Amino acid sequence: MNTCKLIDGKAAAARVLKQVQADVLRLKADGIEPALAVILLGEDPASQVYVRNKILRAEEAGIRSLEYRLGADTSQGRLLELISTLNNDRAVNGILLQLPLPAHIEETRALQAIAPGKDVDGFHSENVGGLSQGRNVLTPCTPSGCMQLLEDACGDLSGKHAVVIGRSNIVGKPMAALLLKAHCSVTVVHSRSVDAKALCRLADIVIAAVGRPRMIDASWLKPGAVVIDVGINRIQEHGRSRLVGDVDLDSALPQVSAITPVPGGVGPMTIAFLMKNTVTAAVQQAHAQRSPSEATCLSIS
Ligand code: GUN
Questions:
Q1: What pLDDT is recorded for position 2?
Q2: Domains of the chain, start order
Q3: Which of the residues 6, 14, 123, 227 has the least number of beta carbons within 10 Å of its own beta carbon?
Q4: How far is CA 278 from CA 35, 93, 271, 273, 299, in A?
């Protein structure tokens, strides 16, 4: 395997986290202790792993974490009450509501209840709208992580043709908005696209976010394309459980100039950008609370 084409997401995430750690130290010296509240309803095994990792990374970065593990039968009213309490708590800077939610909770209602300034997932419509207008708002973590990997791999993205496969609110749509903000020409392909493969073969950059194991092989890719694989699919193979992406890595590797592996590609970047967003939220809240002269010295990288 030509491993030099593999983009090392773990190393990239470690660089982001190191910077976050340094920012947290400087903020603490200034009397600001960034804090992240994580809410998990129910016992979905994958969500439990994600939440545990988020709490661990927060601790490593020096960010205070508050964990709210609630039963799957928690009422929507109780959840909205908790979010309201956290919105009003000045010691809490970021609120993350782990998805998916139990079926009886209206996802949009719950996400819209989070104060936009504490919405470290960037899912509130105010942040979604701000991103689509190209404003500097809290931005969804996975697409932000993908952008960092792309900028590390390609440098300036201006003028490149990017194809995003998938149109979810969490990845596909914000990804397209970020690529547009970086001056790419963007095509979004999805389940109703006519000849998605032909469209994808035109791409300099491919972002695969469909959730279908190894759906994209070399026949989808232009020679020299840069591929970011957002898929995390658990499959059984040769009697073993393993994680694979939406891209067939063995098939794609000879065709591409760079590609993220699964695991070890995009995954670590999502958590690193959650920490970065928490610090950004803490700084913005401190700016809003302090007088202009006090706030001038607050900045992060
Ligand atoms: N579930 C899967 N991905 C995410 C994410 O990025 N944020 C939240 N809150 N839940 C998720």
A1: 66
A2: 30-116 (3.40.50.10860), 141-267 (3.40.50.720)
A3: 14
A4: 7, 6, 11, 8, 14
